[in-house]
Amino acid sequence: MLEHINNLKDEEKDIIIHSPLYVSLLIAGADGEVNDTEKKRILELIHTKTFSEKYELRDLYKTLDHDAAHELRELISVLPQEKSERNEFLIQKLSRLNHIFPKLEHRFQVQLYKSLRQFAHYIAHAEGGFWSVGAVKHAEQEYLKLPMIHDPEEDSEE
């Protein structure tokens, strides 16, 4: 099952597995609150990625999908209520990926990073707008490119 992260400590595995939830809640909650439409979209995306994602990431999404609704509720219940504190908590969790990525196979790092960026984009557009024009709120835009996570492809070029 999650062969690409077997060599990690349990806490590091947990961050990898839950990183799509951290990204989702950061983007969805950037405007203050995670609404039901965004929660539904998060769960739909996790499920979709169990079969649409590249082989290396499918197991990660299958593991998360197994109990995603419960995991999402649990995470929301422990997050700080105040927006800036919540955002800082999620940014810190996601920033930990920068220390975990070097322990992973480069291809897996790149695929996970791209997948998380896609997740951010999809969640930002969850509420729609007219043909998705203007769908990304200003508060979400700040985090959309996940600036707290270093792009593994750029890091390998240095």
Description:
Helix content is 66%, strand content 0%. The chain contains 9 helices and no strands. The chain has helices at 10-28, 36-52, 55-65, 68-78, 83-95, 97-100, 106-124, 138-141, 152-157. Helix 1 packs across helix 2. It is globular.
Helix and strand arrangement:
Elements: H1 10-28, H2 36-52, H3 55-65, H4 68-78, H5 83-95, H6 97-100, H7 106-124, H8 138-141, H9 152-157
Alpha-carbon distance between the termini? 32 Å
The unreliable regions are 129-134
Using only CA atoms, what is the Rg?
A: 15 Å
Number of strands: 0
The total tally of domains equals 1
Q: Given the structure, what is the number of helices?
A: 9
Q: What is the percent of helical residues? A: 55-70%
Main β-sheet, in a few words?
none
Name the shape in a single word.
Answer: globular
Element order: H for helix, E for strand? HHHHHHHHH
Mean pLDDT: 87
What are the main properties of this structure?
single chain, 158 residues, mainly alpha, 9 helices, 66% helix
In brief:
Helix content is 66%, strand content 0%. It is mostly helical and 158 residues long.
